[in-house]
Amino acid sequence: MPHSLDGYHALITREELDAAHVGAMLRLRKQLFVDHCGWLLSTTGDVERDQFDCWYTEHCLLFSGVELVGGFRAIRTDYPYLTKSVFPQLAMRRFPSRRDAWEISRFGVLPGVARSRTARVNYALMFRFAELRGAAALVALADLSYERFLTRMDIRTRRYGPPQVIGNDRMGRPLTALAGEIPLGLADNPGLTKFLDLGRQLEIHDASHVLGRSSIPA
């Protein structure tokens, strides 16, 4: 884990509150997932977005200095979300649909010399976001490298079903993914402590939090 967060800061917002920053995040997603990773996603010009970039979606942006270097989007699972809606075959049981479980998607950081360090800070931001929203679990569609990384970081995950091929990239290579969750109770997942400690040190401007409560309607 990095010992210093010098230069890193974060923004949590929604498109209706800050279209400019969310637009920057959508451009970063196109650069990262389409141009760099080769995923076959819908794009318009230099922007990647889908039907889940909507009024209830929260966008979490990670900066190093003035540069946007990573982030993710978060959707409460009592609203429609990507994993449940598009990949129902990945679960052998019901996907969650409740206020205290959030889906994380489009999670990533730009490649570069500090990528490993930045990725850890992005995970710290993710767990800090969950803490700020009172989440009991984080749901995600992920490839096996993310699961292995979390295991190395002593973070326990729970699969909803076995990994499956969900498509191909633009080079024709198969994309294997699984659906699952990270339970957030420290009694069950003590490895979260180091990420939460780091996330609490991160300067975060939470634009979509009003008077200590999420401004997303109940």
Automatic annotation (TrEMBL):
<dbReference type="Pfam" id="PF00765">
    <property type="entry name" value="Autoind_synth"/>
</dbReference>
<keyword id="KW-0949">S-adenosyl-L-methionine</keyword>
<keyword id="KW-0808">Transferase</keyword>
<dbReference type="InterPro" id="IPR001690">
    <property type="entry name" value="Autoind_synthase"/>
</dbReference>
<keyword id="KW-0071">Autoinducer synthesis</keyword>
<comment type="similarity">
    <text>Belongs to the autoinducer synthase family.</text>
</comment>
<keyword id="KW-0673">Quorum sensing</keyword>
<dbReference type="InterPro" id="IPR016181">
    <property type="entry name" value="Acyl_CoA_acyltransferase"/>
</dbReference>
<protein>
    <submittedName>
        <fullName>GNAT family N-acetyltransferase</fullName>
    </submittedName>
</protein>
